[in-house]
Backbone:
């Protein structure tokens, strides 16, 4: 089998942008917007909208809601949108709608390609949300919601690296509580016996 696979350079550039890592949701959305601007002509896209709804949770006390236009030619479109709804593990959803350019609706072959593209967009958003969640879990004491020792050291390192002089006071509540327990359980009873 000596067949050569030829990939359109624009499609390749689009998928490479979608595969790139993004540390924040803002960077993620910027990469998605850039990839859609590359793909819009090839996929006959007029407009792409995203709606994110995540429920209230311990890690996200206000929940998360966002509506964002990922791509828009600015032309009015009366076409029927292709709507894809993706569930989030937290119980929320990501809904992505893409509108056709100069036609009433997408053909079945186009829908197949669009659904593949929208799925890749969702994977990028989901991956970025998961990375942010893991970062938050690693830097937060889950029982109190307060920044943990690792975050404080990371923050202090950033201050020191900035070249400015800071005085850093680090009090560990856990160590304070542990010393209080030792005082009340070991030292105080022995003093009262004297």
Residues:
């Amino acid at each position: 089998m000596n067949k050569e696979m030829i990939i359109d350079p624009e499609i390749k550039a689009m998928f490479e942008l979608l595969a790139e890592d993004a540390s924040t949701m803002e960077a993620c959305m910027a990469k998605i917007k850039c990839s859609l601007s590359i793909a819009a002509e090839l996929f006959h896209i007029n407009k792409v909208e995203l709606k994110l709804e995540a429920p209230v949770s311990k890690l996200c006390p206000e929940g998360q809601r966002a509506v964002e236009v990922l791509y828009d030619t600015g032309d009015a479109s009366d076409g029927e949108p292709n709507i894809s709804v993706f569930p989030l593990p937290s119980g929320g959803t990501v809904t992505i709608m893409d509108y056709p350019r100069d036609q009433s609706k997408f053909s079945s072959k186009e829908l197949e390609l669009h659904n593949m593209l929208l799925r890749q967009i969702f994977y990028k958003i989901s991956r970025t949300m998961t990375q942010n969640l893991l970062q938050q879990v690693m830097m937060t004491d889950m029982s109190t919601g307060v920044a943990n020792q690792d975050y404080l050291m990371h923050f202090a390192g950033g201050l020191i690296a900035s070249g400015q002089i800071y005085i850093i006071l680090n009090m560990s509540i856990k160590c304070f509580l542990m010393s209080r327990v030792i005082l009340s359980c070991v030292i105080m009873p022995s003093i009262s016996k004297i």
Remarks:
- The first strand starts at residue 45 and ends at 54.
- Strands lie at 45-54, 64-72, 82-87, 93-100.
- The radius of gyration is 26 Å.
- Confidence is low (pLDDT under 50) at residues 185-192.
